[in-house]
Design brief:
The mean pLDDT is 83. The chain contains two helices and six strands; from the N terminus they run βαββαβββ. The strands form two sheets. A four-stranded antiparallel beta sheet has the order 2-3-1-6, covered by helices on one side. A two-stranded antiparallel ribbon has the order 4-5. The protein is α+β, with helices and mostly antiparallel strands.
């Protein structure tokens, strides 16, 4: 079972290959991915690394957390699962809804009439 590790406060110069080689010192790396900004193509300053087992993941976390990389103290810990519904905007898996707002829609004081 692979274990996912969060790596934060990375210098923008770190690449997937550099990340993978640094974590490979502790055991087999399944995947190493630096998160990139879609628009600029520049690193967001954090990454995720998947390691083969919990033992090698914990060894990497213990050794690398707080280490200085290009003058930045990196943060290394177990990745938390993504929270559902934490995205921005008014859309969800169920679609856009105004059910939470009583002032929107016909007859409720929104556009088209309602309370005066």
């Amino acid at each position: 079972m692979s274990v996912k590790i969060y790596v934060g406060n990375l210098p923008f110069s770190v690449t997937d290959a550099i990340l993978e080689s640094n974590f490979a010192e502790f055991g087999r790396v399944s995947k190493a991915k630096v998160m990139m900004d879609r628009e600029s193509g520049r690193s967001k300053g954090f990454a995720f690394v998947e390691m083969a087992s919990a033992e090698v993941a914990q060894a990497a976390i213990t050794a690398l957390n707080g280490m200085s990389v290009d003058g930045r103290s990196i943060v290394v810990n177990l990745a938390r699962p993504r929270e559902e519904g934490s995205g921005s905007g008014g859309y969800s898996a169920a679609g856009y809804s105004t059910a939470k707002r009583s002032d929107v829609g016909y007859g409720n004081g929104g556009f088209g009439g309602g309370r005066y």
